[in-house]
Amino acid sequence: MTSIFLAREYGVEVWASELWVPAEDNAARFDQAGVGDQVHAVRAEAHDLPFASEQFDAILAVGSYHYFGTDDLYVGYIGKFLKTGGQLSIAVPSLHRELRELGGAPAHLRSGAGWEVLSFHTPEWWRFQWEQTGLFQVTASRAQPDGWLDWKLWCEVCAEHSPDEVVRQGSRATIPMLDTDRGELLTFALVTGRKNGPSE
Ligand SMILES: C[S@@+](CC[C@H](N)C(=O)[O-])C[C@H]1O[C@@H](n2cnc3c(N)ncnc32)[C@H](O)[C@@H]1O
Question: Is the CB of 128 under 6 A from ligand 1?
Answer without folding.
Answer: no
